[in-house]
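Hey, can you fold this?
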Amino acid sequence: MSAFNAFKANVPVPWSPNLYITLVRGIPGTRRLLRRTLEALRLTKCNRNVIRWNMPTFRGMLQQVKRLLAIETEEMYNARKLKEANHRALRPSLVVNHHSSPTINSSS
């Protein structure tokens, strides 16, 4: 469950020492203050991840640009990565035999 969906569902998000931050919206067209905040967070391109400490200074910066970001705790990030790895995992090949096996007639 993403942090935003947890917020909408009023589910308490577990506290984590680290926050995993992903830039999901583009930078062009944003105000200079927001661009400078993203530069300070080291987020320069879409779909890039950074790990930051869960401190009030970083949370204040994230509050400014929250509509451009996806913020996850360690537990949520690890669960999402595990789900993606399971989705990409190789599956056993499906073998289909279209030829029927020969039947042996024992009527002699």
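Oh, and this one too while you're at it.
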Amino acid sequence: MEFWWYWDRPASQLPAPAPGVGAAVVVTHVYLSGRRASRVPRRSALSLPQGVVTVPVVHVEIDPAIPFAGTDEQMRYLGDSVIEAARRGAPFLVQLDFEARKSQREFWRATVRSIKTHLPAGVLLSVTALASWCHEDRWLADLPVDEIVPMYFRLGQARADYVARSAVGVGEPRCAMAHGVADDEPPWPVKLPGRRYLFLGKRSPSHSSNYPEKTQ
């Protein structure tokens, strides 16, 4: 099944899913700053057609202005946020969207391990990943998750390089289960493996300010 990513934007900017398409909906924003942690629920109400398969997404932002502590308390807070999202509506899958910097990877790994251990029975864990994590900067091979979604959009000048890499294949086999692209960029010119996630950017005038080019 294909999923469309529903970011936290006014409903008027978001189309209803096409028939047979699911909705991966950002339900919680977790903010980590220094030693602090906070979360904000989805701010814009989203009404989806009856019967649409929904995946809750927890998005993480780390304050770049304050050195990140990565404490056990922050780890538990983030993990609890994902577990809570997984318990609402009995989804088959919950997704963590966390673009961890190199210095944050051990925190990210430990958090993912804890989440996987405490997920409700029958709920799978998906994580998004920078395209670089699945090609030249591979560090996800032993990750205890059920799905990794490399994001092939907002690549800037690196796009042509990743097109060439993906034409050969995905360097990290764990990243061949799914992929993410955006509807406001040219179609990816080569076939990508696995389930498709589509970021809805066409109808968002503020899209560029919300999504800077990803650092690969």
